[in-house]
Amino acid sequence: MVYLTRVEHFNAAHKLYNPKWTREKNEDVFGKCANENWHGHNYELYVTVKGKVDPDTGFLMDVKKLSEIINNHVLELVDHKNLNMDVPFLEGQLCSTENLAKGIWDQIQPHIPTGVRLHCIKLYETPRIFVEYFGD
Amino acid sequence: MVYLTRVEHFNAAHKLYNPKWTREKNEDVFGKCANENWHGHNYELYVTVKGKVDPDTGFLMDVKKLSEIINNHVLELVDHKNLNMDVPFLEGQLCSTENLAKGIWDQIQPHIPTGVRLHCIKLYETPRIFVEYFGD
Amino acid sequence: MVYLTRVEHFNAAHKLYNPKWTREKNEDVFGKCANENWHGHNYELYVTVKGKVDPDTGFLMDVKKLSEIINNHVLELVDHKNLNMDVPFLEGQLCSTENLAKGIWDQIQPHIPTGVRLHCIKLYETPRIFVEYFGD
Amino acid sequence: MVYLTRVEHFNAAHKLYNPKWTREKNEDVFGKCANENWHGHNYELYVTVKGKVDPDTGFLMDVKKLSEIINNHVLELVDHKNLNMDVPFLEGQLCSTENLAKGIWDQIQPHIPTGVRLHCIKLYETPRIFVEYFGD
Amino acid sequence: MVYLTRVEHFNAAHKLYNPKWTREKNEDVFGKCANENWHGHNYELYVTVKGKVDPDTGFLMDVKKLSEIINNHVLELVDHKNLNMDVPFLEGQLCSTENLAKGIWDQIQPHIPTGVRLHCIKLYETPRIFVEYFGD
Amino acid sequence: MVYLTRVEHFNAAHKLYNPKWTREKNEDVFGKCANENWHGHNYELYVTVKGKVDPDTGFLMDVKKLSEIINNHVLELVDHKNLNMDVPFLEGQLCSTENLAKGIWDQIQPHIPTGVRLHCIKLYETPRIFVEYFGD
User: Fold this and answer.
1) Which residues contact E92 (CB under 8 A, 6 or more apart)?
2) Cα B49 to Cα A131: distance, rounded to the nearest angstrom
3) Where are the alpha helices (DSSP H) in chain A?
4) Which residue of E has its CA nearest to F49?
5) I need a surface site. Which of B54, C104, C114, E41 has the fewest CB within 10 A?
6) Which one from B14, B41, B95, B125 is the annotated catalytic residue?
7) CB contact under 8 A, B35 and A79
8) Which are the contacts of E114, defined by CB distance < 8 A and separation ≥ 6?
């Protein structure tokens, strides 16, 4: 069993805002992150897959193929977007890094080729805050 | 003459959009950066001052004081904000990294203590794009 | 289950010196790290917690609260300190990165809120040496 | 149980080329990585060991000793080399990062001292691609 | 006057070898870098341009356009290549980082748009060695 | 003219303390940095030289030779040391990063070979604070 990770980058606007709450409660809970005019981040996304090495290629899987999956099913949808307004797979959810990591897992998992398994989504919101999700 | 640099961090939403142009022209010129629903970045800000070393302290200037100036006159105004909507010192300007760097220079320069000179504002918009401004 | 990590920074002086040994044996075992006049490091501290996402906030826990716990119970005690002389939670121990990571675990663990679990303390002593501790 | 990691650096040339295949098939599968005139990388190597802390030293193991093992049994063989032509422990294998990580595990594992266990080889081929191997 | 930098990445094989010298002299002068079977690097390339900000765009120049110039006139020629064998603009030269930086300047300079000036090529050969060239 | 930079690393203990002042005044001016029991840092040192490229080697100067100069005349004296107590070239000076950078310049400058000029000492005290000195 070997683990292979590809790192990709995107940037997006978002705010943390629970529509069931008053503006005051949102500001209490989320502080500056509740700014109604949005703020944003450069996100660093680490996608890790695991499996056996193919003896003919020496690859677990072709990392260019993994990069294409991430581009087609994640970056196309989130890069230079507003996470609260523009991203179908986050609709109706709080746009926290935790929920974004879980949403990215669900976007990528169906496209991983047979014989390989998605292992981890690791997502940096800032250079000092990151979330990891292992699918359960 | 010695140069001293303090690095600070903030994040913000913005879009690139010239109100004198049609939406089509904005999309032509600015591409994904013109997304009307905003996108955002983690900005890394390098502020460099220059001057002589004080023999009693060994300091060009106290770096905590420099950090306070950056916090009070820049970070308080831009961190977790929308650069187009929330930032008085960018009003009426295109919110490019170039203009943001120049605006930050103007915010910091008046507060640098006598005997020290502001040398450079360096601003990373992403880990692969940055702007430097030396005040003229 | 989601994992959330906050990265913090501190710096400190220390030496590696076993008082039960002669100076010669200390120099034999610890080399330059036994310098009786101390040396020091910038430490990068990664604190990882794990748990379920709160549907009302999208958070595992508020990362600002995690940062406060680290500041109050670790950074206040070790930042700009001498690990051998100034830090009660290291008293009587060798000031290795291994023991420091374990001590930091014990400082933080009691303050993690109910429903969340401390998962890992990862501590960089230099950019090329780090230790991880998972609590057992 | 504590985990200790040492990071080392080397650089090397290689190509991805399966001698059982035609040049066309190699170019199909490996793309630019099949360039017959070679290309190369700076590799960042993370070696992690695990075990108990020795109460007399505060160490899991002496990190200088770990560094020597990596230097003698890996870096001497791969640094400034051609992975396909110069490295006995890769003979007859595809020179992928996956196989290189596994080969490095086999080079290091026999030299880890009693009471300590090799835990992980993590190998960056570029800042955006890395492989991890845990020995099975 | 504002300075704008775009960072790009490529990797390549090379060796340092002066064909006018014996193998012994090459090994004396270049050490491990003279390995006849090649070695290689991940190169980080910083391209800095300078000029005035266009009031209609807020840009010194469109950074996507700068990225295209670098891709078309440098990366296409050097990425996943052998610098000694595959790169026309290095023909007949020692493949040092110094000469590579100067060659990259000459590749990019003619394509910089009117009103903007190429300011600096900065090239990392390893994370601990880099060269800067300002065109004279 | 080409500029070549070598990055090296060392760590050391120090305190900021002016012996002409009372302890109170030292604490007022230097805050936590005046801790009488010392604190410490990992320093990243960038040494830049400039000159012409030798057509026979493609080198400004051999970077291994530059590394040896830094090791022999700086790192041997400061690595794993107490800057206030152990370092002859800092005797009688405040151990600020500014003075340390100037002292390192004076240590390296006499050993730079003919035809090459020392250009800059850049010294990171923490990842967020650095000083540059150009020799005048």
Assistant:
1) none
2) 36
3) 23-30, 63-70, 76-78, 83-86, 97-108
4) E131
5) C114
6) B125
7) no
8) none
Token pair belonging to E27: 């090994």
Q: Which residues of chain D have a CB within 8 Å of the CB of A7?
A: 127-129
* Chain F neighbors (3+ CB pairs < 8 Å): B, C, E
- Rounded Cα distance, E121 and B79, in Å: 32
Q: Which residues in chain B are closer than 8 Å to E63, comparing Cβ atoms?
A: 129
* Chains A and B, touching by 3 or more CB pairs within 8 angstroms: yes
Q: For residue C131, what are its two tokens? A: 């230790």
pLDDT value at residue F33 = 97
> E touches F (3+ CB pairs < 8 Å)?
yes
Are the C-beta atoms of residues B133 and B102 closer than 8 Å to each other? yes
Q: Which amino acid is at C54?
A: D
- CATH-assigned architecture of domain C2-133: 2-Layer Sandwich (3.30)
**Percent of chain A as helix, strand, coil, to the nearest 5:** 35, 30, 30
Residue C136 pLDDT class (50, 70, 90 cuts): confident
Judged by CB atoms closer than 8 Å, whether chains meet at F132 and B2 is answered as yes
Facing residue for F35 by CB, picked from C33, C37, C81: C81
Pairwise CB contact (< 8 Å): C37 & F85: yes
Q: How far apart are CA B19 and CA B26, in angstroms?
A: 9
Structure tokens given for D33: 């990585």
Chain F environment of B7 (Cβ under 8 Å) = 127-129
pLDDT at E136 over 90: no
Contact E128 F56 (CB under 8 A): no
Distance from CA of D39 to the nearest CA of A (A): 17
ipTM of the modeled complex: 0.96
Q: How far are the Cα atoms of D103, D108, D111, D112, D136 from residue D48, in angstroms, in the given order?
A: 15, 11, 13, 11, 15
Catalytic-residue membership of F27? no
F116-136 per-residue burial string, b: 16 or more CB within 10 A, e: under 16: bebbbbbbbbbebbbbbbbee
What's the pLDDT band for D136 if we cut at 50, 70, 90? confident
pLDDT digits (tens, 9 = 90+) for F54-63: 999 999 999 9
Predicted confidence (pLDDT) per residue in C59-68, tens digit: 999 999 999 9
- Contacts of residue E64 in chain B, CB cutoff 8 Å? 31
pLDDT tens by residue, C9-60: 999 999 999 999 999 999 999 999 999 999 999 999 999 999 999 999 999 9
How far apart (Å, rounded) are the C-alpha atoms in residues C106 and C85? 19
Rounded mean pLDDT, D104-123:
98
How far, in Å, CA of D39 to CA of D16, rounded?
10
E strands, B15-135, where?
39-51, 81-82, 116-126, 129-133
